[in-house]
Write the structure tokens for this entry.
Amino acid sequence: MKFAVMGAGAIGAFFGALMAKAGEDVSLIARGPHLRAMQQHGIRVRGSLGEFAVFPPATDDPASIGAVDVVLLTVKAHSLTDVAPKLGPLTGPDTAVVCMQNGIPWWYFFRHGGPWEGTRLETVDPGGTISTHIDIDRVIGCVMYCSTIISEPGVIEYLENTRLSIGELDGGHSPRCEALAAVFKNAGIKCSVRSDIRQDLWVKLMGNVAFNPISALTGATLEEMTECNEIRTLAGHIMSEAGDVAAALGIKPGITIEQRIAAAARVGPHKTSMLQDLEAGRPLELDPLVGAVVELGERLSIPVPHTSTLYACTKLLGARRSEESHPR
């Protein structure tokens, strides 16, 4: 299979490196100093998996790659409106697009069935740009459990987990998902094919909706947040509100709030992705993680007061940091 990794940052370059190491045909699409470093020196991976380097093709021009079998779409969700119109050169008649974003994805209500079928959330697909440019038949849902950072351009530091869940949006088991899972497993990536990928999304979101914005506001690690009784209580309220929204959509996460908090505590002194983005001056992945829950709560007439308050405070923080980083 021929792969293109669109947005080969910390996560995309890591998965691309693992697949290239396993002998897969992988091309990376990135930009800036990270791209130039990969072009000159390849991708270097460090961490508990050992240290290795691979040299897959890297470019900022999708047209130079051409059509592939699978696009791994690894950009942050808030970047999809800019990226989606650029995918055309990578897609042939049967190209699959694996959407590897956190939070409530733009495709959530496509192939969903029932009265919500085709509903578009403004918080995750403003103006419908993404759904206009990505054919829903191409999409494979994905939930990632992996933590990596770019320690320097071209160098990926692996922190924990190498696990994915993938699934068709209609819940069916397909040959393309089975084939993709086999490729991932051969590359050392744990991958399960799920019959209800939306349930997996909500299990992960229950932690992200609380701990990501709280960490951005406080600067605290997961260890620090879960050791603070007041923060544990606040996180519990937010997770409960998210659970109410999920239940109204027919989803039972299958995990208790205490279990989800305990899972976060086991990660230890780790900075969430949102805190890392804030410290690096990057835009916050706030709307798909938090704003979408608030929007769904409003549409469902479900009160989400703790989540709404957290969303408003973190949104203002992100706006202020953006203004400081890019003054007029």
About this structure: The longest strand covers residues 139-152. The chain has two domains: 2-195, 199-322.
